[in-house]
Each structure stands twice: as structure tokens, then as C-alpha cells.
Automatic annotation (TrEMBL):
The WD repeat ranges on this chain: 255-296, 297-338
GO function term, MF aspect, one: U4 snRNA binding
Keywords (A to Z) from UniProt: WD repeat
Pfam families on file: PRP4, WD40
Entry GO CC: U4/U6 x U5 tri-snRNP complex
InterPro entries per record: PRP4-like, PRP4-like_sf, WD40/YVTN_repeat-like_dom_sf, WD40_repeat_dom_sf, WD40_rpt
Name of the protein in its database record: Pre-mRNA processing factor 4 (PRP4)-like domain-containing protein
Residue ranges of the TM segments: none
Residues annotated as domain Pre-mRNA processing factor 4 (PRP4)-like: 38-90
One GO BP annotation of this record: mRNA splicing, via spliceosome
Length: 357
């Protein structure tokens, strides 16, 4: 019997029974040397890659792990490596997808960045002043505020309901004066409702398909002239329409059509810019005075679904169906934070009023 460093040379053995016994010993030695994951979910995934049932009647976690060990011990080294290290290859592919592409913008982009920076610095100053005032409160004062908040939350109840259309409602938002609500639905209808009686004041018609979202301009029902831009809506055909508060039969204006579905849009707090999320994995920033596209930004590996401006107006948060979120600095145009942790696609993102995600 020939052996080199504990490995038996089966080709030098003529007895078939002895060869089978030694092959079994060699397989057991190989099984003991395998390093397997302790996470049961990972074990099930590897069993599935082996085309084996992930669970057998009466089998517990340890039995399942030993069954995987036994299966792998009968495979070649290349097959074992492919099954055990497939996750590492997938993670490496994801890292490759995290690269961000920046496109050259028009000359007006620089002026827009300066305007956004000036606007956000003043709002950041006000937010930090409020934070300093709250930080000076005593523990007792903070406890009283929390108790009052909890009491108010406990008294919340349904005030009223209304049917917005014949198909599901896709979006709803309060107006800046909190006296109106704008809704959109998959029947292509956009409506503005009065609060608290929930009466439809204006029906906005112009979308040929499902509407993804409808939003109020920051100055709607406050500083903005009713005949000017007061609302915007987007649909699955890539259309973005602008509306006033007088005529719902014809849109005030429209953006150049996107190549793919537009599920969400958002007005910047300064009222001069609009951002759209597109299913072509990009987001875009537009100047509302000229309707010019200032930024076309890629970065997500799958469709982009939602976005939200920071309370200061300096940052943009985006979330996509690639399970990742990104934070973009509108003053420099760069992606400054990569958010991971979701196991499935992200359908909504939002900033807290204190400036955090």
C-alpha cells in the first residue's frame, strides 16, 4: 500500500473491496477538512446549489450541515470550490457595480450648485440653532415633551377616507398649508382634495397611463401664484407634467420625456429645481424656470425608485431596486455615502427632520 503524506494511492491497490474501504476513509478525511458555514441559511443555499433538498423530514440544523459535508466529500476540488465560494464571487460582482459614473453638465449647473449651497447653508444654520436649544433642555423637560408626544400619538384615529380612483392609489401628499391633499393613482388620474371635508376640488387630466407620484410645489397655496406652477406628476411612460391650481384639463408644461418609467419626483425646497427618479437607474435634476436638465446621474445597478431632498436642501437620498441607498452632495455632485443592509429592493427613502436618514 502506497501513501504519501497521509493520502492513499488507490491506483496501486488491486483488491476492489480494499480499494472501496480506503476510498471511504479518504472521503471521510476529506469531509473532516472541509470548512462549512454555521449559518443554516447559507447551508440551505449550498444544498440548493448541489440540487439537493434543503430540508429532510426529521433533520435538524446539525444533521443538515453534516449532509452537506457528506455531499461535498464526494465531489472534485473544483466543484467544492465553486459551491463554497460562489457568495464571494457575487459580492465581488456587487463591488464592481458600485462604481459611479459622472456626466458633464451644462454651464448652468455651476450656478445651480452655488444657489443650492447658499440656500442650504442658511437652513443648516437654523436647524443647528434649534438642535442647540433642544440640547439645553433638562432631562425632565425632555421627558415631558416625549410624554406629550406619546399622548398625542395614542389619540390618532382615522378622520376620513375617500376613493381616489378606480385603480390603486400610488401617492398622496399634504399641501404646504396642510389644507389640501394631492393624490395619484394607476388609472392615470391626479386629484387635489380639500381638508377636512375630503372633497375633490380639482381633477388633473393628462396622463395616458399609471401615475407614479404627484407632488406640491413648496409654495403651493402659500406664496405661489395659483396660475403658475403649483404641482407636478410623473407616470410609467416617462412623462413629467406641471400643473397650476386653476386648469386641470391641460398641463401647464411638461419635461422632455424620459426613456423609462418615472416612479417618483421631488421639488427642491428652494422651489427652483425638480428631481426625478427613473427606471433606467438614473436620477435627474431640472431647472424649473428653463426646464433644462442640469444633472443626469447614474450610480444604481438596477431601477431607481425613490428619492428625497435633505431638510437643508444640500443632499439627495436615493433608493433603488438594487437593495442599496446612496447619498449625493448636490453642491459638489459626488456620492458621499453608500447605504447597504437591505435584502430586497428599496421602495421609499426619507430624511428625518433632524437631518438624519
Amino acid at each position: 500500500m502506497a501513501a504519501i503524506e497521509g493520502i492513499v494511492d488507490l491506483s496501486a491497490i488491486d483488491n476492489p473491496i480494499q480499494k472501496e474501504i480506503l476510498a471511504d476513509f479518504d472521503r471521510r478525511r476529506k469531509a473532516r477538512s472541509l470548512t462549512l458555514p454555521t449559518d443554516d441559511i447559507q447551508v440551505k443555499l449550498m444544498l440548493r446549489r448541489c440540487n439537493e433538498p434543503i430540508c429532510i423530514f426529521g433533520e435538524d440544523i446539525l444533521d443538515r450541515r453534516e449532509r452537506l459535508r457528506s455531499l461535498l466529500s464526494r465531489m472534485s476540488e473544483d466543484e467544492i470550490h465553486a459551491i463554497l465560494h460562489l457568495d464571494e464571487k457575487e459580492r465581488a460582482d456587487i463591488q464592481d457595480d458600485q462604481s459611479t459614473w459622472y456626466h458633464r453638465g451644462p454651464a448652468a449647473l455651476r450656478d445651480a450648485r452655488v444657489e443650492i449651497a447658499d440656500f442650504s447653508l442658511e437652513r443648516a444654520k437654523q436647524r443647528l440653532e434649534r438642535a442647540r436649544v433642544q440640547a439645553m433642555l433638562s432631562q425632565q423637560e425632555r421627558a415631558l415633551i416625549k410624554q406629550a408626544t406619546h399622548r398625542r400619538i395614542q389619540t390618532l384615529q382615522i378622520y376620513g377616507t375617500q376613493v381616489s380612483g378606480i385603480r390603486p392609489t400610488s401617492f398622496a401628499e399634504f399641501s404646504p398649508d396642510s389644507k389640501h391633499i394631492i393624490t395619484s393613482n394607476w388609472s392615470g388620474q391626479v386629484s387635489i382634495w380639500s381638508i377636512p371635508d375630503c372633497v375633490e376640488e380639482l381633477k388633473l387630466q393628462g396622463h395616458p397611463c399609471q401615475v407614479g407620484a404627484a407632488r406640491f410645489h413648496p409654495g403651493a397655496y402659500k406664496s405661489q401664484d395659483p396660475l403658475l406652477l403649483n404641482a407636478a406628476s410623473c407616470d410609467h411612460s416617462g412623462n413629467v407634467l406641471f400643473w397650476n391650481l386653476v386648469d386641470g384639463e391641460k398641463p401647464l408644461a411638461k419635461l422632455e420625456r424620459h426613456e423609462d418609467r418615472v416612479p417618483r419626483l421631488a421639488f427642491h425646497q428652494n422651489g427652483r429645481h425638480l428631481c426625478t427618479a427613473c427606471f433606467d437607474s438614473s436620477w435627474r435634476l431640472f431647472d424649473l424656470e428653463t426646464l433644462q436638465e442640469l444633472i443626469y446621474q447614474e450610480g444604481h445597478s438596477k431601477s431607481l425608485f425613490d428619492l428625497d431632498f435633505h431638510v437643508d436642501g444640500s443632499l439627495l437620498l436615493t433608493g433603488g431596486l438594487d437593495c442599496y441607498g446612496r447619498v449625493w452632495d448636490l453642491r459638489t455632485g459626488r456620492c458621499i455615502m453608500f447605504l447597504e443592509g437591505h435584502q430586497k429592493g428599496i421602495y421609499t427613502v426619507s430624511w428625518h427632520q433632524n437631518g438624519f436618514v
